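Before relying on records like the one below, remember that each one covers exactly one chain. Contacts with other chains, cofactors or solvent are not represented anywhere in the record.
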Amino acid sequence: MSLQESMIRAARQGGGSTKTREHRERVARDYSSFCRERNIQTKDISKIKVKHIQQYAEYIKERLSVRSAQNQMSALRNILRSAGRGKFADHRDISNEALGIKGGSRMGTKTALSPENYQAGIEKLEARGSHGEAAILRLQRELGLRATEAIMSVQSIKHWEKELKAGAEKITVIHGTKGGRLREAHVVNRHRALHAIQRARQISQAQGGKLVVTKTPNLSAARSRYEREMRAVGLRGKQSSHSARYAYAQDRIRAYQAAGMSRKEAAAAASCDLGHGPGRGRYIEAVYSR
């Protein structure tokens, strides 16, 4: 059994929600990929050493915020515990403090994706032949979708296209949502949104019904590939693919204000578009308005 296989098996045993398990699987693949790239000859999870964790922590600190790095390390420790290495997972030399990822804030570690970075990202993805990944980024920007929602949107894009062609100003997001809670998301610009949806439909049809093609046909592998492609074209840190949701949120807040809403009401309405619910207006103001 390879390192990746043993880590994925442990990741699936750690309990938690489906999304939590999927996140651990992505971390398992990411760590295994890191070891291959650095030629770290670790054949099994039982052979992972402190220095390997420290090297991986330095690697993720270069591309993730403090909060995201903490989440990544938390998932890795859970994997280690599930594999029977609980004492090692709690080693003081690989604590968040020792690794330099203590603290951090939840209040907006990213900023809205700039038009320049967005366009550059699309062009670079297309040049790499990553057409599906480019389509996902467009969907995130025009519809405010999370990455998982955009990846799974192939189950809805035909219906969305039909609705927008008929004059609708919003879509219903069903697949990949947190907690399985469907929501309605208003589009920023109906023409641009329709173009993004039609492009996604064309690519998915050409790729056997998928926007992300992977050797292992599952959501976790698709998420991992999408994240790798985003990093490859420079979309990381404060200006990551998730920043497309920030740009969408700011557009929606401005649109609601233009329609006569107060700033507070506009933030609450945008919160619903994003799938956070009407009670998270202050959170949207603090996080997505950056």
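The chain has 15 helices and two strands.
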